[in-house]
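Question thread 4412

I'm putting together a teaching handout and wanted feedback from people who do this every day. The idea is simple: show students a protein as raw sequence, then show them the structure tokens that encode its fold, then repeat with a second protein so they can compare. Below is the first pair exactly as I plan to print it.
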Amino acid sequence: MTEDHEAVTAGSGLSRRSFTTAAGTAAAATALAAAPAAATPVQAVPAAPAPTRGADFDRCLAVARALLVVDDHDRPLVPRYERVLQDGLPAQRKATPKKVLVIGAGPAGLVAALLLKRAGHHVTVLEANGNRAGGRIKTFRRGGHERAAQPFADPRQYAEAGAMRLPSSHPLVMGLIDQLDLKKRRFHYVDVDGDGRPANRTWIYVNGIRMRREDYARTPRRINRSFGVPRARWDTPASAILRSVLDPVRDEFSTVDAAGKRVDKPLPERVQGWARVIQRFGDWSMFRFLTEHAGLDERTVDLIGTLENLTSRLPLSFIHSFIGSSLISPDTAFWELEGGTAVLPDALLAKVRDTVRFDRRVTRVEYHDPDRPSSDTRHVGRKGPQVWVDTVSEGRDGPVVREQFTADAAVVTVPFSGLRHVQISPLMSYRKRRAVTELHYDCATKVLLEFSRRWWEFTEADWKRELGRIDPKLYDDYRTGRAPADGSLLGAHPSVPAGHITPGQRTHYAANRAVSRDQPEAAHVVGGGSVSDSANRFMYHPSHPVPGSSGGVVLASYSWADDALRWDSLDDEARYPHALCGLQQVYGQRVEVFYTGAGRTQSWLRDPYAYGEASVLLPGQHTELLPSIPVPEGPMHFAGDHTSLKPAWIEGALESAVRAALEVHTS
């Protein structure tokens, strides 16, 4: 339904949006005609622009420039942003320090605060969370600036609830990591062999068929036929099918060199090419593109969606998924931070700690705008303050309190899904209010399980040795499907610390155990992850051991959109037996002996500070909403990854932080 939101209603000549607008206007006119005259003047509502059909090329060009981070003359902005991150904001003649409120202590808020503080401005950061900065950078760990309790049986273990991989193609993130002297190491998105080369030996388990990725790449027929794809595609891997339909679109802004590698066109051509793509497909969903433009049948779409992680994104914007697959090439190196991604906000917070007020949820904002007079802005005025903010605490460490703050300017980094619950006076522009109301946020949920041994790295000899420590016959019992399935072997290995698995857990795990009793060969992989059509969907192994620990934490389920909602309906503790069941379907029942009974889970939709995984736009929203999102409203400036074309990436947050800090500093 989303991709045809501009479809013409039969016989009416009106699109659905036009019809709603017209009907709403008529209803409002009737109500106003019947209402008594107001006793006092009320705030004028900024007029809504007339609805238009489709996006003109200038707007598509603006989106393309935002995507490529260039100015109106197609000059790259990233080198300037890198200099600002490294050297600070530029010196200003006769500059007067401003009082600045930064709302939100995620990466965008922390970096904006750091830049403004270094430039001499008086900064206060307001964070709703009572003890943690970083936003969707969150590591399950012991200690940290949030002084977290031990999350796993092994106190040395940690795992990512949020951001976990950092592309080498994100220059601001790479530069900031170096500047803060943080240690990074390779994140193996694809499993590697002993020499660090891609091995592709992780599992695909779909339609009851289990196959190594490397085997599927060579002989995909069995899995492809299980989806019912046409005979012509029996022997083509899903990734190759997808690449074949996307490459002609990529030809608009890139070419293939003599070595067969895709190379970007010169920047002005690249901007124009992206603008053409956005104009052509900006209103399309991924499903519509694959079926209507690429001509794929639904069975082939099912295959691609399942194996290439597109099922959850099919109803959403084609442009969103296409950007993700085009800006990060297959040979992009990924990195992770030693100690967890949260060491990044740790380091940033240390530099602005004196400016941060935790446990202050913003409930109301007033700002002064001479062009938008309002009777509801009695706390601000022409002579100052320009911004007034009301906050309330969560009352974690005492009574619930309110506190007000004033400033000359504000940098708002709150996700628009959360800003929806903040009263703002006077009303912001129509386009900004529409973006706050309609910007689509997706969900993502992770379920992580701790194991006392890194069994995914085992050979069969390793399995035989370790299972023999429990019972000499147990290796053969698992291989032949005769091992007990009553939960008695849960955490049975001597390496599992005692006291973490309760009788109730054993009962729940027995009730939710995998029905299939077949035992595949040892995974024998380092890093990477497997894919399944079960509720787990995607599973990832740690890329590196934690120093001093023989175990590890597996991301047993990573899901988005509707797949994530299936987990969100379960309480946290109820997710763990289901996640272990999904792992056993892929890797076999025997992994249970190393389970410590400890798990952690993160639903970003249910998170009271995030309000969703990220802004994952619907068809049409890139051109209808995005251009107005970063535009200031009087003294209010907007930052956060949702204001960029890199939602869900730290790079997008940093781009927006530098932009907003420059706006405040130079205004």
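The second pair follows. I'd like the answer to focus on this one:
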Amino acid sequence: MTFRTDRYRTFPAFPGFSFQIERMVAEGDQVAAYLVFDCEHKSGVIDGIAPAGKRLRFSLLMLLTISDGKIIEKRAHFDRMDIHRQLSGEP
């Protein structure tokens, strides 16, 4: 499964989102990528917050393990509270 196809499962509330790879580092079979996403909350309830078309910008750190040219393990870490604050307007 590629990131492109996996995104439809992972980000259904943000159709048409975009991202930039800010930094990528590889060593052996390990890859670390720092991505910044830009999107709009258009569908689906997230943390009890209904879609209101708010712009959202957040970063994600992705750790990948590669074997025979394929991703065999993927871990993605992001600040869920940052996303909640942006959508809810809470401090």
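Top answer:
Good format. For the second protein you could add a caption like this: The longest helix spans residues 80-88. The chain has one domain: 3-88.
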